[in-house]
Amino acid sequence: MSGTDQALTARQARELLGVAAAASPGELRRAFRNRAKTVHPDRVGGDAEAFRQTVLAYDILRGRAAGDRRFQAPPSVPARPAPSEAATLTLTPHHALHGGQVEHRIVDGRRLKITVPAGLRHGDRLRAGGEMLTVALRGEGQLIVRGNDLWITVGLEASLLDQGGRIKLDTPLGPRDVWITRKASARGLIRLNGEGLPARGRHRQGDLFIRLQAAHETASSAARTLLRRFAAAWAA
Cα(221)–Cα(198) distance, rounded to whole angstroms? Predict the structure, then answer.
């Protein structure tokens, strides 16, 4: 817990939870649960830092309600992740596509090396170190995951988008020859069937969507370099 967290006053804690100074333990619990549901990092629009502040505010006010007006987390206690944070296993699109080994710290502070299988989706659950973890997929550079599908953005010269033609692109699954038709250019999107996340359990095989954007040659080169870096890292 940071020094900023420890400096949270009782007044600030009450304002954060929206309770009065004389709030009962039951009122504190209800206020905490209502705010926690809103800012929980596993929910859409959630915020891990806001959730940590909410937990801290509740602990401070709960300690005061119990008669301990000196409540404060000892500064010598090693920082540990909030329970929700420890129960969330954050993975990249690379892990979802190919699997691999990741490091994760669970609630008791232990760091685990977890081998994750290919094909995990956002919201899937995985048991490790005696804990049930919920998978959260986070985008990486120009690459994101939407459901079963992978999405990448590629910058191309305007002349190529206007005239169309065949180009070779570095994708997460390796180099691919892609035809840019007038229709694809107009839509700014190409779909490669079956090139997304692999099928797993109830999840179907995904597709790869390539967003096409006009860019200066230098920007286009940077985008291709980034994709080559993804491909090289994942092929290793």
Answer: 29
Rounded distance between C-alpha atoms, residue 186 and residue 101, angstroms: 40
Dump pLDDT digits (tens) for 121-143.
Answer: 999 998 887 788 899 888 887 88
Length, in residues, of the chain? 236
Task: Quick: pLDDT tens for 103-116.
Answer: 888 776 778 899 99
Please state, in angstroms and rounded to a whole number, the distance separating the CA atoms of residues 137 and 18. Answer: 32
Q: Are 86 and 105 in contact (CB under 8 A)?
A: yes
Report the pLDDT value the prediction gives residue 203, as an integer from 0 to 100. Answer: 93
Q: Which two tokens stand for residue 141?
A: 């550079």
Q: Which domains are seen in the chain, by residue range?
A: 3-65 (1.10.287.110), 86-137 (2.60.260.20), 143-235 (2.60.260.20)
Q: With H, G, I as helix, E, B as strand and everything else as coil, classify residue 203.
A: strand
Task: Map tokens 């800012």 to a residue.
Answer: 39
- Residues 160, 180 contacting (CB under 8 angstroms): yes
Helix axis angle for 10-17 and 25-39, nearest 10°, is 70
